[in-house]
Each structure stands twice: as C-alpha cells, then as structure tokens.
Amino acid sequence: MNKNKIVNQKKSVTSRLIVGVAMLLLACEPLDLERQLLVSTLPYQGTRIANPDFQGQIVDLGPAPVTNHGFVWDIKDAPDLNAPQGVDLGARAERGPFTSLLTGMLPSTVYYVRAYATTAQGQTVYGETVQYQTPQQETPLSSTEGGVGTIIIIVGNFNFNTVNEITVKFGNGTAEIVSATNTNLIVKVPEINNGTVKISVTTPSGTVFIPDDFTVIDAPAIEAITPATGAPGSTIIIRGTNFITNATYNTVLFDNIPARVTDASATEIVTTVPVGLPAGPIAVKVQSGALVSALPRNFMVSTPPAVTDFAPKSGPVGTRITIIGTNFGSINDTQVTIGEVNAIVSGVTATTLSVLVPTNLSVGASVPIMVKTNGTTLPVTPNFSVTTAGATAVIVNNSITTPTTWVKIAGPGEVDYRVTNNIQITSELTIAPGVIIEVDNGREINVTGSNSVLIAKGTATNPIVFTGRQKQPGFWNRLRFSSATNPANELDYVEISYAGLNGTGNLLVDFGSRVKVSNSNISNSGGYGAIVGSDSRLDLTSSALFNNAIIPLRMAPVNIQWLAATNRMTGGNGRNAIQIEGGTINNFAETTWPTLQDNTPYFITGDVDIASGVRVDPGNIITFDYNRSLRINGSSAYLAAKGTSVSKIIFTGADRSIKGSWNQLRFSSSNNPKNELDHVEVSHGGSGGISQLLVDFGSRLKIANTKIANSSSGGLRLEGDCRLDRFSFNSFENNTNFPASVPVHQLGILDANSTFSGNGLNLVEVYSSSLNEPSAETSWPAFEDGTSIYISGNIFVNSGVRVQPGAIFVFNANVGLEVSGSNSYLVAKGTGQKPIVFTGRQQSAGYWSGLKFNGSPSVNNEFENAQISFGGGQGGNLNMSFGSRLSVRNSTITNSSGWGIFKSGGGEILNSDAATVNTFSNNALGNVN
Q1: What span, in angstroms and rounded, lies between the C-alpha atoms of 822 and 281?
Q2: What integer is the mean pLDDT of 445-473?
Q3: With pLDDT > 90 as the criterion, what percentage of the chain qualifies?
C-alpha cells in the first residue's frame, strides 16, 4: 500500500473556469480545464453485520492512471493508508462504483471507513468518512485464547463510576484496562503462565466470573510460508504454531506493510501479499495479539502479472481465446470478463489463460476483455470482435490406421473435428496448432499399440484442445494411451477437459505407454485429471491440473521421478493433492520428489517401499491415508529429506485433526549414511501402536532441526543395533506415549538442546540394552528442558560413561543399571546447582534395584553432587562387588530398602570419608556396610 502523504485538494468548477478564462484573455491560448481525481465513499445501506460489504465510487479518474484503489478503516477518525486495516483492489481504468468486504472488525465497535484511490504520480485521494458500528458479540469474550498482551473485549453489564473502580483478572494476573463502558471492557492479557484460566471482573457491585475459560498461549512461531514466492495480491499460507484462531487478532506484516488476514487456525494463517510491494526478497512478521514471530528476508515477491497479447482477436461466441502474459495466478485467483460477462476459464498456466467467449454476446459487437489475477486487474487490448460462425466441423467416427494429419479448418477458436464414436489410433496422428476436437457423450480416443503415435504440439497462442461437446465434467470418457510404447508420443500446449466419465480420468496412460505432456491444461474431469499406471511413464512439465472432481493426478511411486516442479495442481480439485498408490521404488539412480511451484502435497494411499535412493525437495508436504507407511528398506535404500528453516518438509496424516491418522516413517535394514531428516516435521502418525518414526535392523539416520509431534503412540523409536549419526535441535511435542525410546548405546547421541516436553509421557525411554564402546567414552546428556531419562529395563554398561551435570534418571520397578568389566566406568559428577539424580518412578523404598558396579576396577568410577534414592533391591542404592572401586563425595543417598552403599566380594570405596562427606537418610539397613 502506498505510503505517500495524503493529497486531497478539491478545486471548484467555478475557480477553474475563472483561472481558465483569465489565461485565455491574457495568453490567447485554447482553454484547458484541469481534471481532478475524485473519490466518494457511499453510506452503508445493508444490515449491520460483522463484515460489511462497503461501496465506493471513482467519480473522476483525473489525468494520471489509477494504480490502486480500495478502502481503509480504523477506530480513529479520518483513516489513511497508514491505518492498520484496509483492502487493496488494484489498478482502475474506468470510473464507477467498486465494492469490497471489510473483514477483521472487532465486535461492538465504531469504525471510520474511507474509500481511496492512488495514482501513478503518488497522489492519494480519499472519499468521505463513513461511520459504521459492528454488532455486539454473541459470547462474553471476543476471543477465548491469546498470548500475553492480546487485546480482549469483555461484554456484560458493569456498574461503575470510574475506571479505577474496575479490576479484571486472568487467573491471578491483573489485566491492563484499555477502555471501559458499562457494557464493554477492552483489556490486555497480563503476563501470566500458559494455560487455561478464569477471568473475573470486580466492580463496586462485587465480583463476577466470565463463564468462558481463556487459554494463554505461547508466542507464535513461523515454520514455513507456502508458496515461498508470490506476486502482490496472491494468496499465501503461513504455517507455524501458536497462532490465535480468530483471524481478527492476527496481523501479518511484509516489511512492516500490513497484509489482510482472511483465515486463521492455531497452525495456519491465510493472507494476501500486499499490493505495491517491490519485487525481491522480503521479511515476513506475524503478530498474534502482542506476541511476534518473524522470518528474515526469505519470502520472494515476484513481478506483478502482465498481459502481452491474445489470440484470436475475433470469432463467434464459444470461441476459445488464449491470453498471453506473465505471472498469472492459479484458477482460484483468476477471473476473466469479456464484454463485462464472466467467461469460462478452461486453462491456466503462469503465462497463458484459455477462455471461452460467452454465448450471450451479439454478432458484430466489439467487446473489452478484462483479466483479474493475483489481485491485479489488467485490461486486454484491443477489443474482441464477435463474428458469425465459420466452417462446419469434420465428423470422425472411424479409427485411424494410416498416418494422418489434422489441420485447422474452421475459424479461429472454432471446433474443427467432432468425434462421434470410440476411435483407436493405431498409426501416427499429427495435430496442428489451434485444432479443436470435440468428443460426443461417453466416447473416447485410444492411442493403442506399439506402432501408435500421437503428436499434438500447439503453441502458447494456438493450443490444441480436446473437450466435450457439452461443457460438463464427465461428458466424454477419456484420452487414453494403452500399450503405446513409442517415446515420440507428445502433448505440448494442449488442453484436455470435461472427460472422466464414471470417475475415470481425462488422461489415462497405462500398459507400458510413454507420453510427454508439457505446457498443458488438464481440467474439469468427472474423476481424475490424469492416471498413470505403474508400468508406464508420463513426463509431466509446466502443466496445470485443476477443477477435477476427485484428484488432479494419480500415479504409482515409481512415476514420481518424471514429475517436474513446474506443474500446478491446487485449483478446485476434489482433493488438491497428487495421489501416490502403494508400491516400490527401485531405480538405478537417485529419485527426486519435487516440490511443485504451488506446493501441491503428495497423498499416499498405499504403503510405499523405497528400495533405492530418494531425495525430497524442501517445502514438500507428504500426507498419508489411514494406517499407511513409508518404508526405507535395504542396504541400497536411503531417504534424504533436507528442508530449510523456511521450507520445511512435512510427513503427516491427510486428516490432521486426529492423532494416528497414518502409521509411520520406517528405516529398516537401511545402513546408508545418506539417510537424513533435517528441518522436517513428522506428525499425526503412530496408528500401528509403536511410534511414527521407527529406525531398526541396523539402519543409520541423521535427525536435526526436526519436529516429531501428535503421534497416537510414541514419537521416535530406535531398535537394536541401529545408529544415529547425528541428533540435534529436535523437538518432540504432544505424542501420546514416550517422545523417544532408545537403546542405551544411542543415549549418548541425543543432544541436550532437543526438547521432549508436552507429551503424554515426558520421559526419554531407555529400554533394556547394553553399551559396549571400549575405544571411546560416551557422554550421557542432561536435557535443557529438564526431561528425565526413564530406564524401563536393566541397563548394562561395559565401557566408559560420563554423565552431564543436571541429568535425571528415573527407574522402572525392579530395574537397575550395572557397570561391569575391566574397561567399564561411570563418572557422575554434578554441581551444586545441577546435581545428577538417580531415583525410582515411584517414590517408595526399594522400588528399583539400584546402581551396581560388578568387576569394574577403574579409578574413574566417581559420584559427586549426585542424588540416589528409593533403590536397594540388590542390597543398596549403590552396590559394589568383585573388585569394583568407587569414589563418592558430596552426594545424597536416601530411602534405600537396604543399605545406602553396599559392598560385597571385594568392592572398595576409594575415599575413606564416604560415610561423612555424603548425606544419608532413611536407609533401612544403614548408610555404609
């Protein structure tokens, strides 16, 4: 939005005439009356609602082009372009009224609204200021959640004389009162801990509690923006956490220029890139209430859309016109009018729009074309001329068995061939640019056999069209390539629409067929856009699949390797996703799963096995049907999923409203060092009851900057002899069971900076296993978030271990830790502020077995500033036997069912003052035997 100073000077017609006459008399030059840009705000005439539909009017365009127009509104009088709320409607080439929905208004609030227009010279002119009061909110609270500092409106009947007589509390925290009336209190959420609290209001009449609970949430965090590039006016989705679910209280800033938030949930905000931003990288900031999250200049503003040409420029009604330009939006963001009548948009790419001339235009009329895309309105010149119909279409009802060429025989944009029967192409058919083929109800075109070839190569201005005689989804059957193995099959600048009878697809490629499709549109199917068999190959590039009833594209996992990132598939389909059926990927070369330019997700409907190398591009979203898995199997298999801080890779359930909507991501017998998850999210899995990320049978994996969340079972489980080559800065949230379960030989790779809080069991589980690393000392972490390490089964240490200060070990019933062998030792040296804790999961004497040193003679065995309690099942909390040696200082040893320290079979305490330099209490048999 333009930030220029307001220029709203109005000159009366009389003054202009006086000046003009004076100039005429003095200079004897022709009279030149200066035109002025004039804007009006019309009074609101509708029913009082939360989001009113306001109308403005451009009375006079003035001498300079209008580059933007719209509305601004605020709770302060005379709002301008700096107002926190507004809507931009783009350039304007004609006078007259304009209308827009005003969103994001608070309930029970008076707003001041003005229409405006801005010229290419930087002048901004405003209309009259119109007052509008929103209706009262239905519930006492304007929002039931928010962070510290969020503005909340409380509605009720409050009896007071001055604001000083009112106290509003959120739990135990006192809120700042921004303003107050006898019916409305506007307050700020105070600085209190996260969680659900009651709100109380105290006035001279007493204290009342608001019936709705209020939830205080963490500061918002931006994780990704999709797409990561967009033109001004385009819609984007900001993904993250802790957003306020009421769109009104979320503000998005692009380099401090406010954007319009149209929808919000706790994890997603839908917004529009502001008009007027320069092309290039830009910073994005989200403010939920008073809490802010920002990303550096990682969002790329692309050049605004533009129209350069169109063809044909004349033809009868029903003519198909191709509009050429740059940076066009998706089908959802694009509207075309011809003669002020909405036209059917049948094809959309970034550089072309395909539209049909409406049927209710008069022959001989010269009508304007207007394109609105990505929030920008673009006039198309010259006008289109409506003419009478041309030649009659050729009827095709027989198969093509000899080499044939179809050329353009009708007028521009008119139908050339009409297929009235099922036909087979068993030879070679070449179709010239601009040819339009209509197919009758229920019919299909089948390119079949090893000798069959279809070459349909149009151009940007003259695409080749396969469509139904009637423009309704599922009218005709399909264009099929069946056993068409010739690699010369090619569709370039082709449109296929209104097929998909009985749930099939517009395009079917099966039985070993090969075909290249580029720069094409596949739309309006009654079923799928395109279907590819597992034994076939579809090279799909720079194409758009939209408005298909079921899904735009269905294929086997092996077919992904021929899918280009330049395709777009998120416009009006039944499910905007690429369906991946079950199957195995076993290629000689590494396969890349591309991230499409519109971030279309993959939807896995069957178990997928990776038996070779797969690399997933940043920003990819891979969703799973119920109980489905992605498995990386075998020594030649690997999965390299490396996202970025802005473009994370997401593995999640198709239904993100529930935990356990899919099974797991599993690495099995895959010891390839290329296995990696970096800036990845794995969420909403775990339906198999184990974990949603499983690493077993000797597999290797790196995990960094990754979130594992919302599992119906565990988060991560490492089995047996698996190996983590890296583990850093990961987070585990809202998993029903343990966030992570590992064998003891992998405990040392877990880093202290990873977080494991907010799960059903906030413990990192170490199950029964052994550590045997004779050549190196292992370090056991102390997690910065205070997470305890849960020893669920007996642990055996046969090498050197050093425990970091602050580590907490919680033991299951009758379970212990044994340090044994000549190469073993355990160093547990805490500090006064960070003691090392060994205790039972239940606080009862003898609950766990205790710590045992068995044949461990190392002088490195040492405890200092440690706390050992509630053990004793093996004789004491600390047990020494068979020549073991141990030093214990400044430690607390309590609540043993036996001794505090128990020696047998030649165990030796290295410090003779162990009984006096440590603290003992409640040990059933004594302190030191």
Answers
A1: 60
A2: 96
A3: 67
